[in-house]
Amino acid sequence: MTIPKERHVLVVFPHPDDEAFGVSGTITTHIQQGTPVTYACLTLGEMGRNLGNPPFATRESLPAIRKKELLASAKAMGLTDLRMMGLRDKTIEFEDDEKMVRMMEELIEDTNPSLIITFYPDFAVHPDHEATARAVVRAVRRMEDRPKLHCVAFANNTLEVLGEPDVVYDIKPVREQKMNSMKAHISQTAWMLEEMEHKLQNGDTETENWLTLERFYTYRWDQDFE
Amino acid sequence: MELVEVNQLQAAIDSFAGKEVYLHLETTNGSYASHFNEGFFNAGAFIRNVVINFELGKVVGDSPHRVGLKLPQGWVYAQGITHFEIDEEGRLLLAGHDGTGKLAVALQLSETPFSY
């Protein structure tokens, strides 16, 4: 599928690196097509566990490292409107729900997106992902003129319940930018990238497809999560 | 961070005893534990910037070490500590990293609040 031109794309995820795996190719393509893209990253991944052995970071020095990596990923994608929202990793579900919805409403009012990309509620595995997705869906639900809402889903039961994703983009033309976005988050992705590159060198088509096909589900308002 | 050297760590813990200090304590399996291993019982706990005043602190056992703090009316302890550091702000940072380099436990003390 070709990626249509949008008025503005708003991407909302909680962790530095959430954008890299599933959507960085889509983000880069939008930017190359002249569509403005805003990425709101809610935390700095302060609670990341990949600190190495021997450790390269401490619990206290990690946020600064991950902030630099996030900036590097934005650069790799060509993204200029990166918003760091100042929440703390692993606490989003405990924030006031209405405050979270208002944060999303303000982002939407400010950017006037024709497309919003976030996680799919109930299919996003990590509690921060779920809380982010809920807040975005609630904010969009209240709108009279709703933008398109594309959601990333990767829970183990996703295929079983949601079926195949209805939006699949081949991002091969920007494969290099996507690789650079993933590499930018090296403190979290080093092990995974090593394994992935090994598989790619062995011609593993499943891994190549995972890398170059970005998959989204259009949110199903008729089966709203609440 | 360095591997725990018991005498150095013990001296560092002693230097925080009898003072109002900010505590950071966490244990975690990571949020994806039950995604990769369905049925895995994922448990953890996280405390940050709670003020304590402990009268006695001890590092015990071979690596991974156990570190316990005795309070006038309570206890704090962490098991699985492998590494430590006194950072540039004078905070005592203890961590337990598993064989793959993932943080499993952290216990930190500071005379000033940790960033929020």
From TrEMBL, chain A:
Signal peptide: none
Source organism of this protein record: Planococcus plakortidis
Gene3D superfamilies for the chain: LmbE-like
Domain of life: Bacteria
Name recorded for this polypeptide: Bacillithiol biosynthesis deacetylase BshB2
Pfam families named among the record's database cross-references: PIG-L
InterPro entries: BshB2 (IPR023841), GlcNAc_PI_deacetylase-related (IPR003737), LmbE-like_dom_sf (IPR024078)
Listed GO MF terms: hydrolase activity, acting on carbon-nitrogen (but not peptide) bonds, in linear amides
Automatic annotation (TrEMBL), chain B:
Pfam families: DUF1806
Descriptive protein name: DUF1806 domain-containing protein
Species assigned in the record: Planococcus plakortidis
